[in-house]
Design goal:
The protein is mainly alpha-helical. The chain is built from five helices and two strands; from the N terminus they run βαααααβ.
Length: 231
């Protein structure tokens, strides 16, 4: 015998509810296989869940689009900061900048190695340190580093920092709506389960083939176990 299983994706949940609602719209009241109370609740839940799902998808798409732009900004910022540090080290090795001045950049214990800039948080930390360190050193009368200049580094870092904040906002908004969708699924599943129970009970006396066909019209999905022949 085939067995039914509740939908396990949001799109499948929406299809199940819509099937029941649309079938009810095309069926005379006296022949409806589930109660009007369940129908009214299904309509309300379907509308709200569709809006929630669409809102989540919209926010997710926006986040993905912004993420592609942010990736480029991150790459540029990492490249410019890394390059600036390498030039700074070369200036120290050529005695153009005193080694003790590396402490202005937070690089006194770095052993002339570029710090790890892999994560966004590390990039934020070191970008700020490098820009502030160069500001302090030049304020003390030191010649500014060029190729890249700290002004160019600052432009790339600022674009990255703004993109980072924007991406965090997108992620927070998306996560919030996703949580709302997740919380509402329990109610959606309860409504679907209730309708399916009513439909199967209403059609229980029909011949097997006709019963399954009628139930499917209301959105019930049946599965067959391995080796089992469909009716």
């Amino acid at each position: 015998m085939p067995y039914r299983r509740l939908p396990n994706t949001d799109s499948a949940r929406i299809r199940a509810l819509r099937s029941a609602v649309e079938k009810a719209a095309d069926t005379d009241f006296q022949e409806l296989s589930f109660s009007t109370n369940a129908l009214d609740e299904a309509k309300s839940v379907l509308t709200h869940f569709e809006l929630l799902s669409a809102r989540y998808q919209q926010l997710y798409d926006t986040q993905v689009k912004a993420g592609k732009s942010f990736t480029g900004k991150t790459k540029n910022a990492r490249m410019y900061i890394s390059h600036f540090i390498q030039v700074l080290y070369m200036c120290v090795m050529r005695s153009e900048i005193k080694e003790e001045q590396l402490s202005l950049y937070g690089l006194e214990d770095a052993h002339m190695v570029v710090p790890d800039l892999t994560s966004n948080e590390q990039l934020l930390e070191w970008g700020q340190k490098i820009i502030e360190g160069e500001r302090q050193r030049t304020a003390q009368g030191g010649a500014p580093i060029y190729n890249p200049s700290i002004a160019k580094v600052n432009v790339m870092f600022t674009l990255f920092k703004e993109g980072y904040k924007t991406q965090k906002l997108h992620q927070k908004a998306t996560a919030r709506v996703l949580q709302e969708v997740g919380d509402y699924r329990e109610k959606v599943d309860r409504i679907i389960f209730g309708i399916w129970e009513e439909v199967e009970k209403h059609n229980i006396d029909l011949p097997p083939e006709k019963r399954l066909a009628r139930n499917r019209e209301y959105g019930i999905v049946y599965y067959y176990r391995k080796g089992e022949i469909a009716e």
